[in-house]
Amino acid sequence: MPKIIKNIDKIIHHLRLALGKMEVARNAYKKHKQTRGLDMLTIVSALHGIPINHAILAEIYISSSNKEIDKSIKLLSKLEKNLLKNNQALHARYRKDLLELMNLMQLARNTSSIEEKYEIISRTISELSEFRNALEKYNI
């Protein structure tokens, strides 16, 4: 499998990890809204010395999701540089798409709404998959 396709697969992998973490954050936040007080997580964590609730747990997963998005952004910028160096014709053709994907990832990282972040990451994954399929035609 060509290196560029492997790199796109890595980016998609990191974004899927981010999506999974956002799902956990969304569920934790829903649980926090339902309980609004003491629940088993708070009690058990307090017994271990560090009381946390579902809202804190959601923030932890959002932060972790942002780290996965950052990894994806770095990989995409590296992919863009490699495409420029090794295949300028394809780079010229897909530069706008690459920048749009980069902007979507940055928007996902900077968005505070869990639902919006989840939708943006999902959209980015589907667009990256389309981009991957388009590049597969060129066998690079």
From TrEMBL:
| Highest rank taxon of the organism | Archaea
Protein's name according to its UniProt entry = PaREP1 family protein
Q: Which organism is it from?
A: Staphylothermus hellenicus (strain DSM 12710 / JCM 10830 / BK20S6-10-b1 / P8)
